[in-house]
Amino acid sequence: MMFRLAWRNLWRNPRRTVVILTAVCVGVFGMIFIAALMQGVGDQMVRNSIATLVGSLQVHHRGYREDPVVENTMTDPAEPAAALAAVLPPGARWSRRVRVNAVAGNARHSAGVTLVGIEPDREGGVSFIGSAVVEGRPLGPGDPYGIIVGRALVEKFETRIGRKLVLMSQAADRDIASRAFTIVGVFRAELAATEKQFVFVSLAAAQEMLKVDKGVSEIAVLLPDGADPGPTADALKAALPERYEIHTWRELLPMLTAYIDMNEGFTVVWYLVVFIAMGFGIVNTLLMAVFERMREFGLLRALGMKPGGIVRGVLIESALLLILGTAAGNGAAFLSVAALAENGINLSAFAAGVEYAGMPRVIYPAFSWTSVLEANLTVWVLGLAVSLYPALKASGITPVAAMARV
């Protein structure tokens, strides 16, 4: 009975009801869609960063993170390798690397780069470089003079496949080590900065050039999708001696971690801002409806209806408005995200700006059911809370006061 009365009262003024339904729908759509965009940006930044030589976690010699020089290499990589074999869950992959700062030069140009010696057969399952070569060929195991460089570096150095590139860095004996490599492949990355920063040679070639024997700078581990690196890192810390350090990607990428934390806080603020705008509309609409029906409420009180019954009736009208509005808003948000799931939002026209911010060039919105639930709960709970004021206003009318109103 109460629901039927509330439903009929809702459509006494269809224009006003449609306006407030539109406001609720747009508000819920904005909450969910913006949250999906931010979630998508965050997820892509995490995936790109993990794939760009970070992995889920890394093992280093103690002190390497503070001073990444060749002296801080792990001289006995077999020891952490044995611990990894005992600790890692099924499906996890790992790869050893030598990573040092170096200077790359040819006849025309020179620039600082990061020299990465990789195991080509293992690196493919750990980082982006396994599938990023778009010209030429990948490195072969033990390739002594082959080097893979980024497309942006090729353009900057005005070079091409088959040309020489000389790398210089400090060797383990503190002398300057240099070697001429032949460009055998060109890779593409999400960010042009990555293409300019990294050059890849085989692990054996890097070890020979830097005179580190079998030493490696880091061991990168990629865990199966969705796996929390924290417990694995704790198990490795317990299994390895003190001279090793284990860091998860959150510790290796503090800026990205801060962005994700800030993103969560911004989502809450965004929800509140949208709801405040929406809440004023709900209160205003219900107050108008209540003041128009004061004589009706007075008649109901005269017929014996308790004030609680009037409050319940107004709240049911508000609940119906919120249910219809949130349903439409959820539907619009789901359809919008589904429409963008394949091609995303292409920001290539603003490539320089988005790269400076570390964002991907194409954004794919991603739903977080937690965000969807939070948005709906925010609207429902706060919507009913702000509806209490007009409901109490209506319940406070007396039959005499109602009949005296013009």
Question: In short, what is this structure?
Answer:
The protein is α+β, with helices and mostly antiparallel strands and 406 residues long. The protein is built from 15 helices and twelve strands.
Overall description:
With 406 residues, the protein is α+β, with helices and mostly antiparallel strands. The chain folds into 2 domains: 1-49 and 256-404, no CATH class; 55-251, no CATH class. It has 15 helices and 12 strands. It has helices at 2-10, 14-54, 78-87, 120-123, 151-157, 192-197, 203-210, 229-239, 249-252, 254-292, 294-302, 307-340, 351-356, 369-395, 399-404, and strands spanning 57-61, 93-105, 110-118, 133-136, 146-150, 164-170, 176-187, 198-202, 218-222, 244-248, 345-346, 362-363. The strands form 2 sheets. Strands 1, 2, 3, 4, 5, 6, 7, 8, 9 and 10 form a 10-stranded mixed beta sheet that branches. Strands 11-12 form a two-stranded antiparallel ribbon. The mean pLDDT is 86. It comes from Desulfococcus multivorans DSM 2059. This is MacB-like periplasmic core domain containing protein. Belongs to the ABC-4 integral membrane protein family. LolC/E subfamily. Keywords: Cell membrane, Membrane, Transmembrane, Transmembrane helix. Residues 272-399 form the ABC3 transporter permease C-terminal domain.
